[in-house]
Every structure is written in C-alpha cells, then in structure tokens.
Amino acid sequence: MINNVTGNTQTKGAGASPKADPSTDPAAAQDRFLTLLVAQLAHQDPMNPMDNAQMTSQMAQINTVVGINQLNSTMEAMSSQFTSMQVLQGTSMIGRTVLSAGDRMGAPVEKISTAAFDLEGSAGDVQVKIIDASGKVVDTVKLGSLDAGRHYFAWDSSTYAGAPGVDPHSLSGMRFQVEAVNGTAKVASTTLSPNMVVATSTSSSGLTLELENGESLDYNKVKAVF
C-alpha cells in the first residue's frame, strides 16, 4: 500500500508485530494517566489550582499500579519456569522409591519386605505387627528399645503361608502396626510406607508422583527418596 503523504511502501500481514492490549499494558495505562494529568493541569481552576502534594499522590498511585502489573507479569514467567523445572525433576524420580505416610509394607524383594516409622519419643520396647488383607496379625517383628526418630525394619515373608484361598506370594495387601511403650506409657509413632515411582505429572498443586500401588502422591508429602 502506498502512503499518500510520504510515498513510503507499507506491508500488511507477515512480519507485523502484535500490538499489546491497551487495557492491560502497563505502559499504555501510564500514558493514559499522564494524558489525563496534563489535561487536568491545563483546565484547572486558576483560583484553586492543584497543589504539589495532590499531584505527587496521583503520580505515586499510577506508579504503584504499573509496578503491580509488572510484578504480576514477572511472577507468571517465574511460575512457568518453575513448572518446567518440576517436569524435568519428575522424570528423574521414575524408578526411585519414595517414603510417605502409610501403613502398607513395601513390595517384597526375594521375600523380604521393608517399611519404616517415626517415633515421637524414646521407647523401651517396640514391636511391629504384620497384618494381612483380612486384618489378621500374621507375624511380629521385635525391635527392642529405640530412640526417638526414624527407624527402618524388614520382614521375612518366607514363613507366611497366606490366608485361605489367597496366593501366599501375593503380599500387596500386607500392612503393619507399630506398638511402642516406655515403661507403662505408650509412645506415639507415624507409619511410613515405601513405594516405587512409575510415572509423574504436574497439576495446579505441583508435581504429582504415580506409585506402583496405583496411588498418587503430592511431591511435597515425600518423606525420603532412596
């Protein structure tokens, strides 16, 4: 298209940069404010002119609005980068075993299952009850006295005959219960279950781990990785 005034050739379509939305662009908002301020100064009442304090206050307000808009844009960019980092971090978790709150025994390796628990205080006698899918106690692991903190234990399932009609090699429903006492006082504990990560995903709540037992776990609920 030929410009009638200058004769310059202008091209439409390809190569044209998109225009910013004037309703959300901070620079456009600032320009509108300055235009209104100049018009207000030009048409103010000579007998009651705007004082410096009032003008300074208005300029401070628009600067605050512009600053907030710029901060929002920066935070959105940082959020996008953080999500990308989470996706990259998630791929490195696949195949790893994570520890989280739960009472299920870990998948057996050569008939040895493991799990863990946190003790809130020292205990003179600690026992772990192994419970099958029917709710029956099938074995007890005696650990003796333990200090406060995290403790791991192993259970040999080779002697477990299994419940009637249940494959003894299927230990997916096995759970455990911790009984800890210090003298006659009970010591509170939190059971922790190990599970392997088979997939990961992201959502509005952050990184989510898909576990081998079919459950999903928020990354911020992971107690340990090994």
Automatic annotation (TrEMBL):
Region described as Disordered: spans on this chain: 1-27
Signal peptide: none
All residue ranges annotated as the FlgD/Vpr Ig-like domain in the record: 115-164
Keywords assigned: Bacterial flagellum biogenesis, Cell projection, Cilium, Flagellum
Keyword Hydrolase: no
Gene3D superfamilies the record matches: 2.30.30.910, 2.60.40.4070
Record's compositionally biased regions (Polar residues): 1-12
Domain FlgD Tudor-like: 85-223
Keyword Ribonucleoprotein assigned: no
Entry's family note: Belongs to the FlgD family.
Function in brief: Required for flagellar hook formation. May act as a scaffolding protein.
Protein's recorded name: Basal-body rod modification protein FlgD
Record organism: Acidovorax bellezanensis
